[in-house]
Amino acid sequence: MPTRRRATLILAALAVLALASIVLALMAGSMSVPFSEVCSALLGEPGGVAGDVVRKLRLPRALAAFACGGLLALAGALLQVLLRNPLADPYVLGISGGAGVGALTAILLGFGVAGISGSAFLGALAAMLLVFGLAHGDGSWTQTRLLLTGVIVASGCGAAVALMLSIAPDDKLRGMLFWLMGDLSQATDPQLVLIVLAAALLVCLPFARELNLLARGADMAQALGVRVSLLRRGVYVVASLATAAAVTQAGSIGFIGLIVPHLVRLAVGNDQRVLLPASVLAGGSLLVVADTLARTVIAPQQLPVGVLTALIGVPVFLFLLTRDRQRR
Amino acid sequence: MNATTPLLHTDQLTVGIADKTFCRGLELTLRPGERMAILGRNGAGKSTILSVLAGLRAPQGGEVRIAGSSYSALGARKSALIRGWLPQARGDAFASTVLETALVGRHPHLARWGWETAKDARIVRQALAAVDLAALEQRDIQTLSGGERQRLAIATLLAQAPQLFLLDEPIAHLDLKHQIAVLELFAGAARDCGAAVAMVLHDPALAWRFCDRALLIYGDGRCESGPTSEMLTEERLSALYQYPLQALASDGRMSFIPR
């Protein structure tokens, strides 16, 4: 029985987890900062080098990681409902593929960080419009058709990415690979992604119960009073923009968008009123922790964070899956 | 709405897909308390016509009115307070408990930010009890049998509490006992609560027993509707199913046996 009280408890617990992950990210690194100094740095007291490291380097990066993780998990949860397919993730509709083509083109052409981000966002937007236009061509709209169009566009983008990698000069190859695997080391300004995350969540929450119905079938939802075609378009646009914003900031980080909504669903059930905000908090926390590990495990060298999200996500997911089977 | 406003009324309704027409110029009126059976061969267009009646699909011509208004004038939410639609069984993509699934039926009664209240839970538990599912409240729907799934869909519809029930094969997958129980349930809703029921059935004997009207869909655009006593005859049903049937009367009931 879904109640407001249960939802509040779950979300409060996850908010604590998210806070803890961010504090951990601020403390850990090549120079470890004790908890008390993290607190004083956050309160704005000048704390010398430690204060600068926390405020200027680690905080923006941790917040960017949280926002990107939250956006990817939200987009994944939305697309799983839209496509009524638990295997859907934010990249299934070719959005990260489009962003990848944009970003790699910019890297090949020698653009700076801003140019790469702008180009990645344009690529994501182009892929989104292409898939929507093709899947929607004759006005009909089925999940299978949308999914197939997305998969085809994604594999086309994959081929373009492989082509660019094979002709790229050696000195650019490493940067391109890091972008493709997901990398937060360039994330210095988290403001925009945080705003996108807040906006996306605020737009979705009023429609959460209608999304519950959509997950059970479009005609059933319509019979119970949901304006299905409008809702589906809205979900598509919000999920696409959320993915595009995250990919632009952090490259294509895998697994968060697929695994986090699943984890949350296994733990708290499939009520979108809880699932959507809980996915944001859990996805954000997971990416913050993964990014902290990525820059500390073999410091001073940094690992691509996408590899770590997969390494953390896969065993946890498999554990929950077997536990769920035993319970039945 | 007063007592004489029909719950369902169609005006010159034409339904078809692409160039195949299932019914042409159909005039139907269903008042509170009336139960109508929809009969026809596989692929004759019964489900398509029913989804047009439910406002889920646009007709090729004509108009459908529920409780005196068109679907577009009412909007999706208000329509859902008047008419309920039972689709044919399908799979579920996500795990969920029986209770949560039936609670979905309360959606049109809740405000945008509203959560299900104790009253909603009570209504849903009554609906589950009415279809014999009370003991399975916490079961995962993906572990249910076909018949249990069908009864859960019916409970969800009862929780929605509409006045007009549009049922697509409500007794599919059900055992004999539950077939009769479910038909009694909807007959009771019509008799005691003034609901109107239109249902796709495949057994003319059950249609004769539980309905007072019948709509025959021949699949070539011809449709006939009228009282069951006129519609459910050997000649008409044999023509409808394109197979000779024999009518047998016993204990004041009719049954129809393939020759």
What does the model show?
The complex is a heterodimer of chains A (328) and B (259). Helices cover 77% and strands 0% of the residues of chain A. Chain A is mostly helical and 328 residues long. Chain A has a single domain (4-322), classed as ABC transporter involved in vitamin B12 uptake, BtuC (Orthogonal Bundle), CATH 1.10.3470. Chain A starts with a helix and ends with a helix. The model of chain A has no long low-confidence stretch (mean pLDDT 88). Chain B has one domain (8-258): Rossmann fold (3-Layer(aba) Sandwich). Chain B has helices spanning 46-53, 71-82, 98-103, 118-130, 146-160, 176-193, 204-210, 228-231, 234-241, and strands at 8-17, 20-30, 35-40, 61-66, 69-70, 83-86, 164-167, 196-200, 213-217, 223-227, 245-250, 253-258. In chain B, the strands form three sheets. Chain B has a six-stranded mixed sheet with strand order 6-7-8-3-9-10, with helices on both faces. Chain B has a four-stranded antiparallel sheet with strand order 2-1-4-5. Chain B is globular, with a radius of gyration of 18 Å. Chain B starts with 7 loop residues before the first strand and ends with a strand. The interface between A and B is medium-sized, with 29 and 37 residues.
